[in-house]
Sequence to fold (595 residues):
Amino acid sequence: MIESKLAEALTNAVKTMYQQTVQPAIFQIQKTRPEFEGDLTVVVFPLLRLSRKAPETTASELGQWLADEMPEVTGFNVIKGFLNLEIADTYWFSFFKSASDNEKFGFKQQQNEPPVVIEYSSPNTNKPLHLGHVRNNLLGWSVAEILKASGKKVLKVNLVNDRGIHICKSMLAWQKWGDGKTPKSSGQKGDKLVGDFYVLFDKKYKEQIADLVKQGVDEKEAALKAPLILEAKAMLVKWEGGDEEIRKLWKEMNSWVYAGFDITYRQMGIDFDKIYYESETYLLGKALVNEGLEKGVFFKKEDGSVWCDLTDEGLDEKLLLRSDGTSVYMTQDLGTAQLRYDDYHPQKLMYVVGNEQNYHFDVLQRVLKKLGKSWAEGIYHLSYGMVELPHGKMKSREGTVVDADDLMEEMAATARRTSEELGKFDDFTPEESARLYNMIGMGALKYFILKVDPKKTMLFNPEESIDFNGNTGSFIQYTHARIRSVIRKANAAGIEPKANSVSGLLLQKKEKTLLKLLYDFPQVVDAAAEAYSPAQIANYSYDLAKEFNQFYHDHSILKEEDTAKRDFRILLSAFTSKVLRSAMGLLGIQLPERM
RNA sequence: GGUCCCGUAGCAUAAUUGGAUAGUGCACCUGACUACGGAUCAGGAGGUUGCAGAUUCGAAUUCUGCCGGGAUCACCA
Fold:
C-alpha cells in the first residue's frame, strides 16, 4: 500500500531533516479533495512541533524529500498546511493489474481467532414481523457479512422468544374462538393467523376491563382481575408445569409461526447459523442467580425476590427473580449469554437490539461482571434507532404497524410499475420478470434502510414509498446493468481483453478517479467492520456508481479507436461491476444483468 | 426528576473520526452529442451545522451551560 510506504519515507525524512524519531502512524495521509491537484495529501500541522518551521516550509521540504526518494511520487504542491502529492500512473496501473481479476478483492481471509457471535431478529412468536424487525434483520445480517469480509469468523444467531404470557394469550384466544382454524384450513400465513388471535385476545380483554369499570371497579384492579387475564396466567403456570395438552397446543401454534417466519426470512434473504429458543434456555438463568446469591453478589428481599444492587455504579437495584420464584427477562438473558459463551467462547457477543433497550444491556453486562464473568467484557449492544412513520411511532392499536410481508410485496409491485412505465423488456418470461422486480424492490428497500447510520432514528414514509431515482439501490443496480451490457457487447464482438496486457497508457482524469475509488474498497470494508456500519458500504457503493456514470458519460468505451485504451476501459468497467457486486452483496442486495 | 441518545438547506441524509470553500439525493428551475441503456449526465438556487461560551494553528465533530425532540428508570418483554 502506498500510504504505508509514504509514512515510512516521512519517518525517515523527519529523522534526517529534523533529528526526531517518530512512529509512522502519526502521519495523517488522506485522499486529496477533488478541488485540489494531487492524489494523496499529508496534513503537516501536527508535524510543526517536529520541524519548528512554518507550515508551508515544512510541507515543501517534506514534499521535496518524497519526490526525491520515492519513484511513485511524481510531483507535489503545497496549499497552506496541506502537502498534496501526485502519485504516478504506473502505480495505479500496477494496482489495477494485481486487483482487477481478483474476485475476492477487498475481502480478507478468515483469521484464526475466536468467533464473533451476533444475535439479531429475536422475534416473539405471537405476532408477525414488522418494519422494525426489517431494520433489525437487515442490519444484523449485513454487519455479520461485513465482519466476515474483514476476516472475522462470525456466527449468526437468532433468539426466539417462544414462551411467556404473551404466547399464552394467543393460545387462549385460539382455544376459545378459533374453531380449530389452522393455516392449512384458512390458507393464512401461520404467523399472521396467530397474530390475529393475539389481537383478538387484547380486544376481548379490553371489553372485560371496560365492563368491570362500569360495575365500579378501579381500572388498575380491573386489568388484574379480568377473567381472561387470569385464565392466561393459569395457562402459563400449566405450561411451566409441563401440562401435556397445553404443551401440545403450544408446539403446534409455534410451528405455524415458524413456517410463516421462514417465508418472511427467505424473502428478506437473511439466514442464521443457529437458533436459540427461550423455552430451552430460560432455566439456565435461574442457576446463575443462585450462583450469585451464594457468592453474595446478589441479595434476597423479605418477600423472596432476588436483586442485584447496582446503586454504587450509578444505577438502580435490578430484579432478577420474582417473589414467586419465576424468572424475568433479565434472568433469561443471563442464561442465554452464558450458554452462548459456553457454546462458542467468542471474542465478542453482539446483540442487535433497538436503542430502547440500552439500559437493559448495560445492566446485563454489569450483572455478569458482578458474577465474575470476565467474558462479559465482550458483550456489545449494537443499538439502532427506531423506524418512525410520518405521524410518529408505529402503534399496533392504531393499526399503523407496517407489516414486513406487505412492505416487501409492495416494493416489488412498485418496481414492476416503474419498469412497465419505462417500457422495458418484453422478452422476459413471467418468472424472469418476477425475479427482477423482486430484486429491484428488495434492493430499493434494503438500500433505503441500510444507508442510514444505524444509531439514527429514521423516518419511513409509506405514501411516498421509496425512490428509484437518485441515491438509491436501483441507481446502483442500473449502473451495474449498464456495465454488463457494455461487456456483453464487447464479448459479442470478440473483444475479451486481459488485465496484464494493459500497458503504456496515461490515465485520463475520470479513469483515474474511478480507479482510485476502486483502490479504496478494502479500506472501506475495514472501516465499515470497525464501525459496524453497513451505511459506509452503501455510501461507498453510491459514490462508486456515480463516479462510473461520470466516466461513462465522458469517455467512449467500445467506440474508442485506440484499442489499448478501449481494452483498458472495458476492464476498468468490469472491475467496477465486480466491486459493486461485492459491496452490495454485503448489504444483501443483488445486481441484475439487465433491468 | 435521574441517566443515556439525537438536533446539519423545505424533506431525507454524508463528512476519511479534530483538517482545506460542510458533500449528496428528493422536490424546484435550466440544459445534454439524433442514447456504447435517459432508472443517466451537466448546471442553478437553497446553510450562522439548535443557541451561547470554552479548548487550538483549525470544531458539524471535544468540554460546559441552556433550548428542543426521543428512549429508559416495572415482580412487562
In short: The first strand of chain A starts at residue 28 and ends at 31. Residues 11 and 22 of chain A are 6 Å apart (CA to CA).
